[in-house]
Amino acid sequence: QVQLVESGGGLVEAGGSLRLSCTASGRTVSTLNMGWFRQAPGKEREFVAAITWSSATYYADSAKGRSTVSRDFAKNTLYLEMNNLKPEDTAVYYCAAGGFIRVTLVPAYWGQGTQVTVSS
Asked: What are the distances in angstroms from CA 20 to CA 1, 4, 40, 74, 113?
């Protein structure tokens, strides 16, 4: 069983930056395919970014050039660094771990989510 706990969300002004963290327990992040999804009010949950156990990275078009997904093996933590944030990035961000089908992360485990609010 894998447990995921996110942190790092908050309120930020447009153009600002945030780094989200996801600490895993039950497995080491070096053996997991992991990623980030987000869900805005009234919208479906959508993919943001992912990293495979072998360090290949994938990004949604909305995140490319503004976001970086990375891992710290010593801290057993996944990160999502987001820059040049926009009001449309406002959402609950979820950490996930699971399998990969082609270039799509299929989550088997979810964190509880962390709120990111970007003010204009």
From this structure: 22, 12, 16, 17, 10
